[in-house]
Amino acid sequence: MCDTCNRSYKHRESLYNHKTYECNVEPKFQCEYCKARFRRKDQFKVHVATKHRGVAFLNFYDNFLAGTIRQYICPKCSRSYMRRKHLNRHLKFECGKEPQFQCPHCPYRAKYKASLKSHVSLRHTYPNLLSQSKII
């Protein structure tokens, strides 16, 4: 239970976060587009990402957050990545594309070959089929 406001929490970590970021704490992060204020950086980033997409969001992201978090942004869907190779993989296999790897045993389709291999080994190998069977 918080000593200051008497709010109670189920988990100790939640109480710690409340005391550190919320209870009697002035907001530290202010949006330069709408002047909204936030106590936590993660809430601030979600706000900017959802409310200020487009050019304003990209400019803000480049000037303020670039280098600290994810600096490679998909031009089609605005997803962001820490590494250029991850953005390239996203553009090649994911963004606006249907899954291209079809399971030979069922209707499952995957966007990545590794995901399909994992699916087949978990769902369609002999020991797994026995354990899923209603006979045994």
From TrEMBL:
InterPro entries for this protein: Znf_C2H2_sf, Znf_C2H2_type
Compartment(s) where it occurs, according to its Swiss-Prot or TrEMBL record: Nucleus
Coiled coil: none
Organism: Rhynocoris fuscipes
Protein name: C2H2-type domain-containing protein
SUPFAM superfamilies: beta-beta-alpha zinc fingers
GO molecular function: DNA-binding transcription factor activity, RNA polymerase II-specific; zinc ion binding
The keyword Translocase appears for this protein: no
Primary localisation category: nucleus
Family annotation (Pfam families): zf-C2H2 (PF00096)
Cellular component aspect of the GO annotation: nucleus
Keyword Metal-binding among record annotations: yes
